[in-house]
């Protein structure tokens, strides 16, 4: 999982040639801590056809504000520089994979 910032979001996410799962989280977020191992598993499972990045919304408020993120954890799926899907909350692994599978 790659850690991105407001400054690197464009180059790592919007300019990516493969599908990107953006994990918006904060260090104090309990549900985010619970789902982090699942996100890491997905990153390994789909390595090469999916890029998984994490952004700390406390330290990088511009990205969260731009995409109108109101709660965390939030997952956004990007394809060819466009947001194509959003999943809000600490969802089970299979629910996240079901959302991703439409784009892989």
- Mean pLDDT across residues: 96
- The CATH architecture category equals 3-Layer(aba) Sandwich
- The name CATH uses for the topology is Glutaredoxin
Describe the sheet with the most strands. Answer: 5 strands, mixed
Order of helices and strands: EHEHEHEEH
Please tell me how large the radius of gyration is.
12 Å
How many helices? The count is 4
- Going by CATH, the homologous superfamily would be Glutaredoxin
Major sheet strand order: 1-3-2-4-5
* Count of domain modules: 1
Helix content: 25-40%
Highest CATH level, the class: Alpha Beta
Number of strands: 5
Distance between the termini: 17 Å
Low-confidence stretches are none
Name the overall outline: globular
Strand content: 25-35%
Summing up helix and strand content along with how strands pair, one would put the structural category as alpha/beta
Could you give the topology of this structure?
Blueprint: E1 2-4, H1 9-14, E2 19-25, H2 30-45, E3 50-56, H3 61-66, E4 74-79, E5 82-88, H4 93-101
Parallel strand pairs: 1-3, 2-3
Antiparallel strand pairs: 2-4, 4-5
Brief overview:
This protein has helices spanning 9-14, 30-45, 61-66, 93-101; strands at 2-4, 19-25, 50-56, 74-79, 82-88. The protein has 104 residues and is an alpha/beta fold. The longest helix has 16 residues, at 30-45.
């Amino acid at each position: 999982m790659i850690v991105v910032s407001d400054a690197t979001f464009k180059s790592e996410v919007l300019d990516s040639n493969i599908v990107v799962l953006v994990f918006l989280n904060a260090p104090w977020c309990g549900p985010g801590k619970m789902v982090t191992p699942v996100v890491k598993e997905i990153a390994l499972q789909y390595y090469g056809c999916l890029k998984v990045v994490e952004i700390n919304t406390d330290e990088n408020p511009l990205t969260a504000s731009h995409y109108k993120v109101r709660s965390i954890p939030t997952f956004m799926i990007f394809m060819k520089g466009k947001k194509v899907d959003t999943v809000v909350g600490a969802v089970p692994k299979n629910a996240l994979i079901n959302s991703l599978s439409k784009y892989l």
